[in-house]
Design the sequence.
DNA sequence: TTGTATGCGTTATCAG
DNA sequence: CTGATAACGCATACAA
């Protein structure tokens, strides 16, 4: 048997479909007795609104799509929490699409958006394609997009971010303040816009202290555990070992910590470590990780609010939120 | 300006809307010249299908909804990967809904499903409500649901899981084999069905070895880092300290490890630790964590395949997948 | 190979 | 307060 429609309900309640619809959306405009009859018919049939029909008629879906590059990356979870709370407060359902940084999957979600299944989107990563060009989008009346964090300042879309360069500067300055002079940086992947910003902050901090930025102190990385382990191997192989390392994210720092521990290199006695992000596990690293906290829930919430404004016809400006240096046990004096 | 419709395309291409539709869905049935005219008109207008209209007409949405209890829990990411690959192979878009184990949010996603916005759902957690009662659902022609892992055997829905009791038994037997006799278990939350299964396996393993299951060796927990730390506090406060602990998940084990390290208690020298799940960070714990690996990608893929079968009208049986005891460095002889 | 016409289930407008 | 009816944009059966 097939799904009951509004018509089935109407017939059973002995009213017109218009009245049923009103009972569902503006209950107080219909007579109490009628309303009761209708609602009872709704229960009796197990009726549910057909979203496709509703959405076709109303020209909106009451859904936001959040495109995430990698759900497995714990960094994103709290952002999602912030988004969700704002979204549901506005009566929207938040749906997450995991692009896996794959072009094909990203395309699939973009199509989803273009097909009108979401009223707008939040983008948590550098898009693989340039489909999001804002002027074009707006001209065509397409659903708006707000980007979070991993996006360049000139990319077009409205953005929520922190001052990545400043944060990197603060992290490295903390190490310098502890007396470190030979400080390495383990960078993110070249393809990621954040990488350049954090490298720039690292270099600027060195310069501010009258230090040279040495190429051999800039380690490659890809945000993964393994590249943290690789960084340790490289660290250990060097004649002039750095006394401190600043990592472009926490996960790489954790990989380094694991390798260091196994090799008998102690943190912070032998080397100081600073991460970036303050992910959930940073507090339970051994030792607990000094890192840059991004206000993730706030970032998500702010982005969602921006999106709602845009949907509402306004044209808000991008937002920059404050970061925080969280000093734990992985950093110490030289 | 508003979104172009199929009619705009038809007008510009000088054909009927039926032909446009055919160009999009059955291109080879339309003359090459016509097709070219149409596709060019599509490009020119920037036309995109209206999913609501299509879905209303076709009575399906080509979408699967995956309900996750907590996106921040790294355990779920690989499951999602497995689901995604099967889903996209079948031409379906995978959408993730994060219920946050909240009844209200779960309801929102269930409504989403009931409203026909997804053709089926995958449930990665114990539902908060009993809305998923299968016989009722099928009778009403509602979208099918397949559950993964965290669900009781009699709950109704088709399920993909591992033998949790057997896995717990294997973990504890491993400890017993190493000579441990006083073995504690840090359990999951009572509300979670897995908790009882793993406790049962723990007890059975003790009994098999002629040991008593002592209530004071069963620690409460909630799957969070903090309850792992609490377990350490309790462990340290005991007169007769266990020589080994089996945790109902890796995250709690990690919390324990961090506290133990800080207190100078060494693993596995002073105490052996076994986790459950083999999450991403398990290999980078200090020391690397012995744990039970669940074939997460496979579980996701299997669940998706089951769902597709059900959507296709079949009535497949539940599936149980093999687990694996991964022995790393956190367990050693007494 | 193409066009015409109908209906998918709602919401909103307009009368009554 | 309630009912009839016209879109919404598309896919498809049927006719040409």
Sequence:
């Amino acid at each position: 048997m097939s799904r009951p429609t509004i018509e089935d309900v109407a017939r059973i309640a002995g009213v017109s479909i218009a009245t049923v619809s009103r009972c569902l959306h503006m209950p107080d405009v219909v007579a109490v007795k009628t309303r009761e009859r209708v609602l009872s018919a709704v229960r009796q049939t197990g009726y549910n609104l057909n979203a496709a029909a509703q959405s076709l008629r109303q020209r909106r879906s009451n859904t936001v799509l959040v495109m995430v590059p990698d759900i497995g990356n714990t960094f994103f979870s709290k952002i999602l929490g912030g988004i969700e709370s704002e979204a549901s407060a506005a009566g929207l359902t938040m749906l997450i699409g995991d692009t896996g940084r794959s072009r094909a999957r990203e395309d699939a979600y973009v199509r989803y958006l273009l097909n009108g299944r979401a009223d707008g989107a939040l983008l948590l990563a550098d898009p693989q394609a340039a489909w999001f060009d804002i002027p074009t989008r707006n001209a065509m009346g397409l659903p708006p997009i707000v980007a979070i964090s991993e996006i360049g300042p000139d990319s077009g879309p409205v953005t929520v971010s922190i001052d990545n360069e400043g944060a990197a500067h603060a992290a490295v300055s903390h190490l310098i303040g502890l007396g470190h002079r030979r400080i390495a940086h383990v960078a993110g992947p070249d393809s990621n816009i954040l990488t350049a910003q954090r490298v720039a902050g690292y270099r600027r901090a060195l310069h501010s202290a009258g230090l040279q930025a040495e190429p051999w102190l800039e380690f490659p990385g890809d945000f993964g555990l393994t590249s943290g382990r690789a960084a340790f191997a490289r660290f250990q192989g060097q004649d002039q070992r750095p006394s401190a390392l600043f990592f472009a994210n926490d996960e790489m720092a954790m990989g380094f910590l694991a390798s260091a521990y196994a090799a008998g290199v102690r943190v912070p006695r032998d080397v100081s470590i600073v991460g970036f992000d303050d992910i959930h596990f940073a507090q339970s690293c051994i030792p607990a990780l000094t890192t840059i906290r991004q206000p993730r829930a706030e970032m998500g919430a702010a982005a969602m609010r921006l999106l709602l404004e845009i949907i509402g016809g306004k044209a808000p400006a991008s937002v920059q939120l404050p970061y925080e240096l969280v000093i734990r046990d992985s950093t110490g004096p030289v």
Remarks:
- Residues 15-19, 22, 29-31, 34, 53, 55-59 of chain A lie near DNA strand D (CB under 10 Å from a C1').
